[in-house]
Amino acid sequence: MASALVAPLAAAQETSKPGATKAKSVFKAVEFNHIALDTPNRDQAIGFYESNFGMTNISHGRTVRDTFLHFEKGFMNLGEAEKAGLNHFCLGIQDFEPEVVFRMLSMLDLKPFKMGGNNLHIRDPDGLNVQIQEIGHGYQRVDSAQLTQAKKGLLETVSIHHLSLMVTDVKRSRDFYTEMFGLNVIKDEESKRCVLAVGRGFMELRKGPKAAMNHFCLACKNFNATELAAKLVEAGIDKVVGKETLVSLHDSSGLVIQVIAAN
Question: Is 98 in contact with 106 (CB distance < 8 Å)?
Fold first, then answer.
């Protein structure tokens, strides 16, 4: 997949808007915009993230099938499904113009598809669903008062700090994300593990038998690892592990979450 990006890269960049700075990658991703999770019990998941992470359910007038839990710099999309897991994640890129981006992705034979409006998606080398949007997509439309007035959780989520993925070929995925999204390599352990910078956070790629989400990490205010671990255990949260600067736990669907202090 990575080698397939190199040949048409120069041609694809020529289609970007005049005056834009040309880079070695097709796009430049600077944020985790949102993460979409599948859950067998959406109502239970909504309550979990509202009460523990201070997320606010704002529908934007969409149908009841769409659940958007907002926080300061991003949001979480919850969908009902038989099995819990990652549905997709979204990267916010610089100079996002839907038709231009769609044309560039088509030129690279990445078979882009839309899921409503200008919500552009592609599949990575393992088939994981990656959405591509403008910086601030979704959450910048939310009035800050809607968030502050609704805060009621143990924590106040600020952003998605990092996402850890299991992939079948670390080098292949590393090359895809560096060449496509301009992510810089922070740490590369050959074929076992690679860490790529995404804005102020990062993406971790780990070798696994099949593609899946390993865990995701939320950056939160009001964070004290010792106190938080104790409160989560008291609240009956399963498998809480507290460290000096990090807390790991399972959500209501059994997905692994890490929590770290927001900068």
Answer: no
